[in-house]
Amino acid sequence: MTSIATPAVTTDRLLTAEEAAQFHEDGYVVKRGLFSPEELRPLQNELDSHPDIRGSQSSIPDLDGKLWKVTIWCEQNDTYAGKLPRLARMVDNTSLLLGEESYFWHIKLVRKSNDIPGAVDWHQGYAYWYDDCVYPDTVTCSIALDANTLENGCLKVVKGSHKLGRIDMVDVGGAHVADPVRTAEILDRLEVVPCEMQAGDAVFFHANMLHGSLPNTTDQPRTLMHCVYNARSNEPVDPAKAPHRAYRPTEKLPDDTLARGDFDTVFEKHTFFAPEQLNSVGGTQVF
């Protein structure tokens, strides 16, 4: 009896060789239309119905003492929130950029409205994680869930800053930010690029990419979902310190999973890091 092999789960939305080269040279690359409007609609509807994301938002102070809010999760279950980061286009593209198997680490969802006045100050992802991971071998795929413009506080990246190495994080007032003195010198030398995007566009960026965003001054929300992946060989030195960062194989799902409605709920049955839990999982290191 001849067995029939199960077809491999692959994607037709792979970054081109030119796009991958831009990522390695500049530290980031924008991929237009990574997700369709139909795929994002369930998530957008959920956010419209529950703008506080079911009470899961944590408040983070900026340099001016104003707050911005973030929701964090790492659960891989059958909800929309648990399946999106496992889609082939996400896993294959991050593996391509890392040069090896990637595994899903966590998601940070930042939803800005004009009643949330805080800015996301300049920082690097690896500056939070370096004491756990030997190399800066993580990639973030940030998906725009609505229009991201200069006026509503789109993500900004510092082109080529991933080549500078890790910048020390310092506490200024209640904010935890990249060293302001060193950052000011960097901003005098390198180009700041605003990542203006439409819903469904995404930007992939390096762990050492200096990035941040200004407040939203419009009457429309600005929502960005940061999906973070680590290289398998870069598993934290002490996984027990933060179990949510330990290597877990990412079960890759077909790209049409969301379009087919093959998920349980969007957020209703999902588990988030509760605001009061942040310190118990390493403080701001989850960012």
TrEMBL record:
A Pfam short name: PhyH
Top-rank taxon, per record: Bacteria
Single Gene Ontology MF annotation: 2-oxoglutarate-dependent dioxygenase activity
Keywords: Dioxygenase, Oxidoreductase
Transmembrane segments: none
Alphabetical list of SUPFAM superfamilies matching this protein: Clavaminate synthase-like
Protein's recorded name: Phytanoyl-CoA dioxygenase family protein
UniProt organism field: Amycolatopsis balhimycina DSM 5908
